[in-house]
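Re: the request from the purification team.
They wanted to know what the chain is likely to look like in 3D before they choose a buffer screen. I agreed to run a prediction and write the result into the notebook, where they can find it.
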Amino acid sequence: MGRLFRFTLAGGIGFAADAAALWLLLAATPLGALSARVLSIGFALCVTWQ
């Protein structure tokens, strides 16, 4: 059960980081949706990497 909990927690944190970064990039920069999405995915990967 511990492994499933850690997996779910990491996924939730990654999703939150991705969504927050995407929202911030779209709201505060002139980037397009695709560029902002690529950067937000990269940010989420960095946040959740072991």
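For the purification team: The CA atoms of residues 10 and 48 lie 6 Å apart.
Please add any questions underneath this entry.
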